[in-house]
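ok so i was messing around last nite and threw this chain in just to see what happens. nothing serious, just curious
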Amino acid sequence: MNLSKTLRPLSLAVVLLTGTAFAAAPVRFGIAHFDGDGQLKLLMPQALGPSQEVKVQFPDERFATQCCKTIRSSAVKPIVDHAHGAPQTFLYLADVPASWATLPFIGMAVTGHQRIEASGQDRLDVTNLDGTRSEARLCTSHEGVHLTELRGRTVATHLYLRLGYDIDEPTCGRALPAGATSVDVEARALRSSTR
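result:
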C-alpha cells in the first residue's frame, strides 16, 4: 500500500473542509463597553458561535485606544433583557482582567476571520480572508454611541448603545461618508442594567 497516494486525497479533503470553515465565519463588528471594574459588555449584531474569538479594543495607560485583546465566546454569557434590547441585537457580559480597562471605556469588537489593518479611537478596519475590506466607525449622538460597519459606501450594520446621559459634543455628523446608505435592518439596543 502506497501511503502517500492514500494520504494525498485525504489532505485535499482536509484543506477543502478547512477552507469552508473559514469562509463560514463572516466578519462582524460590535460595541465593546468596559465598566472599569472588570466587566465587559458586548453588543453584537448576531449571536456568537460556541467557540468564536472576539477581538476587542482597549485603552492603554494614557487612555488611547489600542487593538486588540482576545476573549473566547465561551467566556461570555448572553444577557436576556427584553425591556432594553432590540431583537436584532445580542448583548453579552464577561468578566475580564481589571487591567484591561481601569476606567469606563467604549471601543469596538470584531469577530470572524480577518486581519486588522487599522485601529483607532473611532475606527477599526479589517481585511477578510477573501481579500475584501470592512471598516467600522464609532461616533456619539446626544445620548448614545453608534457603530456603523461600512462595506464600500454601504452601511452594512448599525448598532446603537444608549448611555443614559447627555453627550455635550456629538461626533456622528462627520462619521459617515456622504451618500452612504443603509441596506440592513438597523439594529438598536439600549444599555441595560446588569447589576
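not much to say yet. The chain is about 10% helix and 45% strand.
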